[in-house]
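Researcher: I've got a protein sequence and the SMILES for magnesium ion. Could you write out the 3D structure of the bound complex as structure tokens? I'd like something to compare against our soaking experiments later this week.
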Amino acid sequence: MSDEPIQAGDLHKRYGNVEAMAGIDLTVPAGTVLALLGPNGAGKTTAVHILTTLVRPDSGWARVAGHDVVREAASVRATIGLAGQLAAVDDFLTGRENLEQIGQLYHLGRRASRQRASELLETMDLADAAHRTARTFSGGMRRRLDLAASLVGRPPVLFLDEPTTGLDPQGRIALWDVIRRLVDDGTTVLLTTQYLEEADRLADQIVMMHLGRVISRGTADELKSAYGGDRLELRLADPSDSARAAGAVATLGTGQAQTDADAGVVTLPVDDGAAALPAVVRHLDGAQVKLSGVLLRRPSLDDVFLALTGSSPDTTADAKRHVPAEAG
Ligand SMILES: Nc1ncnc2c1ncn2[C@@H]1O[C@H](COP(=O)(O)OP(=O)(O)OP(=O)(O)O)[C@@H](O)[C@H]1O
Ligand SMILES: [Mg+2]
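Model: Sure. Here is the predicted complex with magnesium ion in place.
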């Protein structure tokens, strides 16, 4: 068996008549980030719960840091860090006490626990609030404290369930930095997100999930070029040239050119925008069409998701089926 820190095969989990997990395979190589990307109800939290031993799969298998998540659950728990979708902090302790208490649980000793808490409070930009009880923290601060708590034991394998949900844009970017640094130091991370940009920025591998199934996987670039293709947006100096321009470039695209005659914009789908551009310009020149500008649009992960599911990731899968109250 290979030694990837996170491996899972054919995981199934059913809640009543909802198939939360309908045969999921995952492999996360050491020191990389895998993002589970999907809308509400896709099964992301269920996957995290199974891999972190909180929920047993109905069938299939998973190994984390070499340990079976069902038969060796205690060993798995001793190796991993988890920041769940709902921040688990003790409201009656201060920020610092929350972290020091976990240090003691890890048997770090008083001094080392203090030291580690200070480092993490600093990293998570919570140093100024360290002495306040967590009850007084904002939602974003609680998230960051919870994340800090998951890092106290320097776990080699880290699970983050929607780590930046509820953070403001600045907080999100700061957290991406923290995660990136952990990974650079060798930590293996599985995170879930509904944010395409987050997966794009952080993940080495993206697994797109929908209704308990993997609908696609690959690097952000692979997903984009498999399902999107580039688009050249040709802005015409004279909008009345639109039809002539579309005709001139018709044979150069991978599909039909779209024309917005009012705006004087012709959009051409192509495999590789940079490679196609010279010929496009030549053809337009030959047809005596003057350009005022050209935009090369790479597809976004949003485009990919749309192509695969017919809806955007933020239109919820749960809307399509019954949702129990305690669903996370
Ligand atoms: N304990 C449970 N009891 C019943 N149904 C559940 C339970 N946990 C999850 N489900 C259902 O399983 C499906 C997958 O849920 P899951 O929480 O894994 O989705 P998710 O991708 O994490 O969604 P979100 O983005 O909303 O967090 C949903 O339809 C959910 O309602
Ligand atoms: Mg979830």
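Model: Residues 15, 18, 20, 38, 40-46, 85, 194, 318, 323-324, 326-328 surround adenosine-5'-triphosphate (ligand 1) (CB under 6 Å). The domain at 6-89+137-225 is CATH 3.40.50.300 (Rossmann fold).
Researcher: Great, I'll pass this along to the crystallography team.
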